[in-house]
Amino acid sequence: MLHFPDGFLWGAATAAHQIEGNNFNNDWWPREHAPGTTIVEPSGDACDSYHRFREDMTLLRDAGLDTYRFSIEWSRIEPEEGFVSRAGIDHYRRMVDTALELGITPMVTLMHFTVPRWFADRGMWRSPDAADRFARFTELALPVLGDDVKWVCTINEPNIAAMIAGGEDPANLVAYGLPDPDLKVADTLLECHRRSREVLSGVGGVRSGWTVATQAFQPEPGCEQAARDYGHQRDDWYLEAARGDDWVGVQAYTRTVIGPDGPRQVPEGVETTLTGWEYYPKALEEGVRSAWEKTGGVPVFVTENGMATADDARRIDYTRGALNGLHAAMADGVEVAGYLHWSLLDNYEWASGFRPTFGLIAVDRETFVRTPKPSLGWLGGVARANAVEEDPQP
Predict the structure, then answer these.
(1) How many angstroms separate the CA atoms of 99 and 103, rounded?
(2) Residue 393 belongs to some domain of the structure
(3) Where are the alpha helices (DSSP H) in 266-373?
(4) Is residue 394 part of a domain?
(5) Number of domains in the chain
């Protein structure tokens, strides 16, 4: 058995728009319903977790997990510019209170891709006052955090957000051949992150950071410089920008191989997931090591890792392999605070709709009945033991 240090946190993650349902005041909702959209289907009721969050957290707790990362919807707290919904703030504070009541450590994400329609209409991250608006939203969110939320993510995957906000078709956000990010938008997102951290620094005990979707860029022979150039603006720059933060989140799923002509598609015959990504558990170890190096030793938190599959046994295999790699990185001195699986629930996966199932818990689309999968019990067992068995097929 491979043992993790005392105090290591184990849990799962979700995002508001992907599980709550009926977030019609944010910018993604009209994209889902636009004529001719490339988005497979609308989110609709999603998993109805807006009303069923206690049930979801209880399933997580009963399995043996102790940490839950969830996001709050800016569009529910400030549905119109300048109008603050006390009911929206109270709702998310009830989520925090429920987590604490159940003995769960909450991690709150302030922005997981979606923003209010009014902010999008103002130019979103191209608006000259974007950082002011995001800093003000952080202030509005302080009652949600209270004095007992210790882990806060300001912005989820700013590297992906820069691509989405840059006007790219969200259906093109695949594991290889990622579109060029808008670098001005990236700069604005970094300013928003820093302004948000300034606000959060006034709250005692809060540890804040942002999360990066690491892609494990790997060069073919002779393509080392091309891989560095390709990866820097899509990955490394965001890790380097986290220097000095309290922690940095790593969200790793697969790798991207760079050849003479750029990123390679997954070769035929190689196992892939329901998102078309290569089955590559080692991506987590590589992402964690890269984050530790690029940030100059900022503590790492694995805020997402998992596999979209209908074969839950394969999900367990993938996760075991990923955790073996994580343990190896930690044995070499990389400081990692915890591991959060993506996702707690089979949820809405943006442009791909509901087909890619990442969840530890299945959700009936008609009745919303939750059915825990064997992988939830397996990961809960790992958490209870604070140890994982060695991968028989590394």
Answers:
(1) 6
(2) no
(3) 283-294, 312-331
(4) no
(5) 1
How distant, in Å, are the alpha carbons of 362, 364, 389 from that of 248? 29, 34, 27
- Catalytic residue IDs: 157, 304
Query: Do the Cβ atoms of 215 and 254 come closer than 8 Å?
Result: yes
φ/ψ of residue 51, rounded to 5: -100, -15
Strand partners of residue 208: 152
Instruction: Let me know how long the chain is.
Output: 394
Ordered DSSP codes for 182-239: -HHHHHHHHHHHHHHHHHHTTSTT-EEEEEEEE--EEEPTT-HHHHHHHHIIIIIHHH
pLDDT in tens, the chain (394 residues): 999 999 999 999 999 999 999 999 999 999 999 999 999 999 999 999 999 999 999 999 999 999 999 999 999 999 999 999 999 999 999 999 999 999 999 999 999 999 999 999 999 999 999 999 999 999 999 999 999 999 999 999 999 999 876 655 655 555 455 678 899 999 999 999 999 999 999 998 999 999 999 999 999 999 999 999 999 999 999 999 999 999 999 999 999 999 999 999 999 999 999 999 999 999 999 999 999 999 999 999 999 999 999 999 999 999 999 999 999 999 999 999 999 999 999 999 999 999 999 999 999 999 999 999 999 999 999 999 999 999 887 6
> What CATH number did the domain enclosing 208 receive?
3.20.20.80
Residue pair 23/17 in contact (Cβ under 8 Å)? The answer is yes
Helix (H, G, I), strand (E, B) or coil at 382: helix
In a domain, 39, yes or no: yes
Residue 120 lies in a domain: yes
* Domain extent for 281: 2-388
Dump strand ranges (E) for the chain: 2-3, 9-13, 67-71, 105-111, 151-156, 207-214, 217-219, 248-252, 256-259, 262-263, 300-305, 336-342, 361-363, 370-372, 387-388
Cα separation, 197 vs 297, whole angstroms: 19
Distance (Å, rounded) from C-alpha 124 to C-alpha 162? Answer: 11
